[in-house]
Amino acid sequence: MRIEGCIIGFDEYMNLVLDDAEEVHMKTKNRKPLGRIMLKGDNITLLQSVSN
User: Fold this and answer.
1) Per-residue pLDDT reduced to its tens digit, 30-52
2) Is 47 within the bounds of a domain?
3) Fewer CB under 10 Å: which end of the chain, C or N?
4) Domain ranges, residue 18
5) Domain for residue 32, yes or no?
6) Nearest 5 degrees, angle CA 11-CA 14-CA 20?
7) Are 16 and 9 a contacting pair, CB within 8 Å?
8) Mean pLDDT over all residues of the chain?
9) In what order do the strands lie in the sheet with 31-39?
């Protein structure tokens, strides 16, 4: 599973605020809209630019 969204804020602990976030399941390609979320830095393993 991965989270995709647009970064609109962050702090010194790498906590991120994402807008238009979606939960993407890799095997099924199902996408679940989440809206605006705060993702804790402890849960982040990789940041990658995704083009539309």
Assistant:
1) 999 999 999 999 999 999 997 76
2) no
3) C
4) 2-42
5) yes
6) 85
7) yes
8) 95
9) 2-10, 16-24, 31-39
Residue 36: Cβ within 10 Å count: 13
* Tokens linked to 22: 């979606």
> Which DSSP string do the residues of 2-44 spell out, in sequence order?
EEEEEEEEE-TT--EEEEEEEEE-TTT--EEEEEEEEE-GGG-
Q: Domain tally for the chain?
A: 1
Flag whether 31 is in a domain: yes
Residue 33 lies in a domain: yes
Q: Look up the CATH number of the domain holding residue 31.
A: 2.30.30.100
